[in-house]
Design brief:
With about 130 residues, the chain is α+β, with helices and mostly antiparallel strands. It contains 3 helices and 4 strands; from the N terminus they run βαββααβ. It has a domain of about 90 residues: Alpha-Beta Plaits (2-Layer Sandwich).
Amino acid sequence: MVESAIDKHLQCPRTLSRRVDDEYQPPFPMFVARAGQDLTQVVMGYFGVQYHGDEHRAEALDGLRQIVAGFGTEDGPGEHDLTHHRDKEGYDNFIAVGYWRAPPRLRALAGAGGGGGLVGRGRAGPGPRRLLP
């Protein structure tokens, strides 16, 4: 059985039925981070760069660095995680997941000039594309 990612002090009665059986085992390793008991809510924002082909990796990493630098603002998340995966179409995806304890801070960041520089429209083609959260 997979451990719930929602810590016990944050759980509430389920309003929707589960989409997987209790015996579900994911096809890849999964990890759960735990916060202190003082955490009563969290807002997560997903920001990413997608690219196709190793020749675009350096440019994509630069885009990811820009996203993480944007997290350093007053309204940025208190914590963040970085991840990478290759999707079934062969595109590489760098994702920065920001964690905000106060939803208004994320709204302020997202409202500041189209995401405070974090959110951009992607471009067609194999090069890096910044994705909307």
